[in-house]
Design a protein that fits this description.
OB fold (Dihydrolipoamide Acetyltransferase, E2P), binds 5'-deoxyadenosine, pyruvate-formate lyase- activating enzyme, 3 domains, 434 residues, binds iron/sulfur cluster, 13 helices, 33% helix, 5-stranded mixed β-barrel, alpha/beta, Rossmann fold
Amino acid sequence: MPEPKKLFIETLGCAMNVRDSEHMIAELNRKDSYALTEDVSQADLILINTCSVREKPVAKLFSEIGVFNKKKKPTAKIGVCGCTASHLGEEIIRRAPSVDFVLGARNVSKITEVVDTRHAVEIDTDYDESSYAFGEYRSNPFKAMVNISIGCDKGCTFCIVPATRGEEISIPSELIVQEIGKAVATGAKEVMLLGQNVNNYGRRFGTHEEEIDFTGLLQKVSRIEGLERIRFTSPHPLHMDDAFLEEFASNPKICKQIHVPLQSGSTRLLKAMKRGYTKENFLSRCAKIRALCPEAAISTDIIVGFPGESEADFEDTMAVLEEVRFEQLFSFKYSPRPMTEAALYEAQVDPLAASERLSRLQARHTEILDEIMDAQLSKTHAVYFDELKPQGKVAGRSDDGKLVFVEGSEELLGKIASVRITKTSRGALDGALL
Ligand code: 5AD
Ligand code: SF4
């Protein structure tokens, strides 16, 4: 057996990218044998799996390529993959000729076709069955990530994703079930269903025809024997119909953690963002979740400083935070992106005002989070342990997605156990096994 080649892979951005990186590792291993390394200077192949949702990481890409060039072996190849690859394409090679190939977010399954072709650029976003061929590689053996759809049709005016990931296509449910079945057979008890808009599942398939929606898919997936936990990301508030929320609340395999991306609490701005819901619709969906499932952890994404945002609009966002009390908040300063409508809007917000609003939002959220976490003391959670930690600790997630540490060893891995919380902090909980 020849020595495996060494692969360094940096993954930026969302869960979709994490899964795409797994997919590329699996594809590469079909052709050759690769071992992962965290040391760039040892690598034969360096992959940067990029995100283009905001401008900063895109700007950082080129300085990073420069750093890798200095550190890498002379024979090592560099590939730029993911959303920035899709959006900049050949320009990446023009600006950084040391890059060997460029592979778009929709094309990751073609990694073996470009890896040996100097200056190959593969960024097509047209429909192609291979764009959702599953690769068999899991970064965590106890959990699987499985795409249920690719692309996005929504066209929110701030978002570059529809341009980088292309049209939304659902993956046939039988394939999804098959994929999860394989993961369960090899030790995964939990699945994360992935898509840009998971609860729009079933609206359009590729060459396949099937009558099914996301609720139907959840029911089907939950019948897989040996699968104990189902998570999904991200749903869209617009498609949170009652049937879906009732399934979420009543199906014991579905983890009680739900991401409801708000973006803004101002109905006026939501319209300018083309989100398709009002502040009131959003609040009614969250109220429904709380009514059906009081223990659910609700998380969100918020953008501040969207063009035209006034102090009053921002206060609407703060009011929603106050009412829903999101547990996790991913908050961003608006970043104008090419190929998006909002980048052309005239009323861009003063960046200093946007930064100040972002700080205010985050400070208030931190207080709320502290209250939520403090209230966990002495509570009992069912924790699925999936990671060994230093100093004799094992980490896992509660059903509602909280990170929990206990003292223990390898035997706990892959098991779900009851834990009483003994210490709380903002980011994680400590507990004792019951
Ligand atoms: N500027 C700032 N944040 C953005 N997001 C998407 N596009 C932009 C942008 N142009 C945020 C949204 C989305 C998350 C993944 O990234 O909140 O839900
Ligand atoms: Fe972007 Fe909106 Fe699609 Fe999410 S739903 S990926 S924010 S266009």
